Amino acid sequence: MFEDDVCLKKMLNDLAQVINDAVTESADMRKALNAIKKMGYGVDVSLAACIGLYKSDSSDGKQEELTPINFEFNKDDLAFLKSLKIKIDGK
To answer: pTM of the prediction?
Structure first.
């Protein structure tokens, strides 16, 4: 394994920890989970984070332009992102 690979793996692990901390330390998340538990239900939460990595191949250091994807957030998506303290422009 190359030194860059070890460094990248550590950075990705750090990113995963930051995402986990944002979810587990969220007061909104605790409030929502406690409300469900008060109703007599057990709760298991599982999140998947997809992280795309790419390395710029151009000699000038510029990254190639990405094609935008058009999609709509529903109210559940927005509530979840808000619980993670993620703001969406225009929402």
So the answer is: 0.46
Residues 6+ apart with CB under 8 A from 2: none
Place of tokens 């990254």: 63
CA-CA-CA-CA torsion for 66, 48, 87, 39, nearest 10 degrees? 160
pLDDT at 1 over 50: no
Burial class (CB in 10 A: 0-12, 13-18, 19+), 57: exposed
Q: Is 68 left (phi over 0), alpha (psi -120 to 50) or beta?
A: beta
Q: How many residues does the chain have?
A: 91
36-68 pLDDT per residue, tens: 999 999 988 777 666 777 776 655 656 566 666
